[in-house]
Write a structure and sequence with these properties.
single chain; about 550 residues; alpha/beta; Nitrilase/N-carbamoyl-D-aminoacid amidohydrolase; 2 domains; 8-stranded mixed β-sheet; 6-stranded mixed β-sheet
Length: about 550
Amino acid sequence: MSEKNYLLGILSAFLLWLAWPPMRFTAPLLLVAFVPLFRAVEDVIQSDRDKKGRKIFLLAGMSFFIWNTSCIYWVFNSLSAVNPVWVAALISLVPFGLAAVLMTLAFWLYYRVRRVTSSRSLSYGALICFWIAYEYLHQSWDLAFPWMTLGNGFAQSHSLIQWYEYTGVYGGSLWILVANILAFEVTSQNENSPQGYSRKKKLLLSLSAWVLLPIGISLLIYSRYEEKPNPANVVVVQPNVDPYVKWAAVPPAVQVQQLIHLSDSLGQPNTEYFIWPETSIPTKINEDEVRMDANFLTVQAFLNKYKNGNVLTGIESYLLYDSAKSPTAAYIESMGKYSDVFNAAINIENSAKVQFYHKSKLVPGVEQMPFASALSFLKPVFAAFGGSSGGFGYQDKPSVFYAQSGMGVAPVICYESIWGGYVAQYVAQGAQFIAVITNDGWWGNTSGKDQHMEYAKLRAIETRRWVARSANTGISCFINQRGDVTKQTQWWHATALKEDINLNEELTFYVKHGDYIAVFASFLAAVFFVFLIVRQVSAGRERAA
């Protein structure tokens, strides 16, 4: 394979990185970023050299590994803070490399389809379906990490993708892939022949329509969108406690008092919600005995001055059972009981009513053991790497917190905010705004915290709900129903924000129908895969005959 092809692959990786959040104003580069890679792959396909499949796999793998590593390098930062460098580098290969391998498989399968069919359009359709199927898989299995889903790339340029309220991020992935295919075909036509020149003009017209019509529609929606007045006063708090010392150096009671002080600094008589970050109360509390916990009682006492006030906060909690009621329950020999530990959210109000939500989308290797039943022998390894040896407990479906006034809020914990379909389920159940509670300080002052915040804009657009985001060390913010950040904090700064948000009860098309694009593409990917196997077997029999 020529040096030129490797350079083209590197160029695609560079363009994809340059287009990705938190880079500003560069997202449209995603619509052409794959073109150099397409050119390099096509050069390999058209060559008369051997081992084309292996060369395409190496070429695409190199491009996607560079892209993934350059965008999510911050994973290494969080791991290296508590592990030796070589251990952090080794573990980082999982998120860096796994997505790259899955992306590469989509391109390799595209090449295999090209080999068994004369239809270029059919092979392009297969590529689109294989790619979106990979993205859907990567949000659905035990190693889920949908951070690099193509549609996420327009989070910084949210005014251009207001139509996500109909399609979700997979509509963005489809838009990007088709645009790149059309752009590549435009550059591939021979202008010296009348037929090539005519085809290039048609393709250029198709590309222009495919790119500009969605942007025009989006800008029209953006300019005309008006929120229906339905105000609620909300305060988000950013206590700025170093995540690497909050469980040891700072007593939980001190942290709670700091949260109360910041809340009181902006609270007013009509404040209905105070949003505190993930694990704000960093001491394990038995959920069945929470009403007797000192920190819980302190929070309730704070709410006495706010008639309709609620505190939605992250908490570490646990439940005890007489028998193993869940697959994550661990036996505690000293107590003779089984226990589940949760990364949870709790809703505290001026009454005896207490609501809990147990984080469902757990971080692989840190909060859950991937493929636990099959890989149980690796539990000591994950424990040594600073993760959970048994895994946190979780709930299968989202649940909505309801305030005393009847207001519904989605308690979204950290990692869960990158699942559009999951957040949409909260809204379908009655959530009128979204509260994202997170602790992004693990990654340091890197682009990780910025990307995580930007992705919350997509949830606002998909559901047309306000997002109140409370991050322990930043970035905390308010995001309106168009995806605009109305207020935000600085990184590593103890503060609070207040906003009168508008509640919304209407359901978008996306909320009603979920990730239908991904489901349909995955079905077609399975059809293409079967087609590929059948054609390969038929070709083998013909050669044998």
